[in-house]
Design brief:
The complex is a heterodimer. Chain A starts with a strand and ends with a strand. By secondary structure, chain A is an alpha+beta fold. In chain A, the strands form three sheets. A four-stranded antiparallel sheet of chain A has the order 2-3-1-4, covered by helices on one side. Chain A contains three helices and eight strands; from the N terminus they run βαββαββββαβ. Chain B is an alpha+beta fold. Chain B contains eight helices and 24 strands. In chain B, the strands form six sheets. In chain B, strands 1, 2, 3, 6, 9, 15, 16, 17, 18 and 19 form a ten-stranded mixed sheet that branches. The radius of gyration of chain B is 22 Å and the shape is globular. The chains are: A alpha+beta, B alpha+beta. Chains A and B meet through loops of A and β2, β18, β23 and α8 of B.
Chain lengths: ~140, ~400
Amino acid sequence: MPKKRLVLTFPQTVVEEPITYRLIKDYDLVVNILRARISREEEGRLIMEISGEKEALDKGLNYLKKIGVAIQPLAKDVRWLEDRCTHCTVCVPLCPTEAIVVDRERMEISLDKDRCIVCGACIPACPYKAVEILF
Amino acid sequence: MAKTLAEINEKIKKGKAVVVTAEEIIDLVDEKGIKKAAQEVDVVTSATFGPMCSSGIYLNTGHSKPKIKLGGGKTYLNEVPVYTGFAAVDIYLGATALPDDDPRNRVHPGEFRYGGGHVIEDLVAGKDVKLVATAYGTDCYPRRSLETWINLKDVNEAVLFNPRNAYQNYNVAVNLSHKVIYTYMGILQPNLGNANYCSAGQLSPLLNDPYYKTIGVGTRIFLGGGVGYVVWQGTQHNPTAPRTEKGIPRSSAGTIAVLGDLKQMSPEWLKGTTMTGYGVTLSVGIGVPIPILNEEILSYAAVKDEEILAQIVDYSDAYPKGKSGSLGEISYTQLKSGKIAVQGKEVPTGSLSSYAKARKIASLLKDWIKKGEFLLTEPVELLPSAESGMTFKPLKERPIR
């Protein structure tokens, strides 16, 4: 079953549309909300893992596009600036999903984007501003 | 069989010196034993890279026309205030200085995005930096204000002069309280959520020469990517801290003051650093060569992570209140494994000191020495050691009535 991690950005006009409900009921998709920031006053952002049959998934995403929701893959939203990173590892214990992996031989870190839920915990922890999240 | 420093330097000049890093010496000693390794090895290179707040630079900007006396006035580099209490155009910029209008911790935790450490990184990166100054004006220095771009390559002297660097060992910071705290040891999650340490352990300079038998005033070092010198013991130098049987301090002990030509340095080894909710600072890369003059010096330089112990300290209460007391002692082997046990709980660890970068510095310095580009120096004075009786005293407050 295909699975996608997406960042959904929707304008104020769509904020009151129950999109999660529609994706589940109308398109038979499995929806897991990883992170959300929605308010009536501004545009909403939702990080979602959606899985389902390919056809259903395509239809569901079409529905989102049609109502004006911008969709981009999650990976694009985490930027690890390797040239600023010193591999100090101070961010490592703060990552709730163990997406920052330490090679204990080399004592260097790497980012496992599949595990990252873009929670942002590493951002204030990084002394060198080596992580950016566009959320 | 003892060697002299002059003999080692002769070998370096001929490109024949045997140089290994403080990590490589461990396996070598395991394999060959102290005696044989001491005969074979001439120099062990130690290193560290991490935030070191007592750091800063002094600059001589050169004189404007007409002249201005920055001394006694106010001067800023990229909005960050510098110390002007010197002659006309000498200024000192400290790593933790903040712009006057930085909100600091008014909304806690403050972001501390830019400060002294970042200006230093910008300068060594070759970027133009904005100098804005006001002065009171004198007959010989009539000008009262100055706004200009400056660049590291154009100023007269630019010197990194750090009063306290390269701490010999350090605390492991944890948080026993029920809320997140923001410290110079990083963000500490409540209820022992994480444990942060800050030392290169077996690579760290003063842990490889625990009684300062070779490192002293005048020791030539790798500093920020260039060549620098140890110029004094660092502030808070505390050689009488408790030690293990092998002489390794069990907590923060010795420190060094270092100095070097900023123009030789690079942003790879001097990095502006932000500690959320705490402030800004500078991360500094330091590499110190240890001449293997005898077996004793070699046996110290062969120290391993498992032999170096650090104290676990609660930064929510014990540390800020200046209470003594450790929650336990832990080795760097355990700290580097990523998990330690504190009060029966498994706690994930993070480091502020970059072992990866320390390793690179040790190997760079090794290359410099092997190529004959870097000679070792005999200290003109050794640092006060354990027998000196020197301690790190608290402030004795005396109320002003």
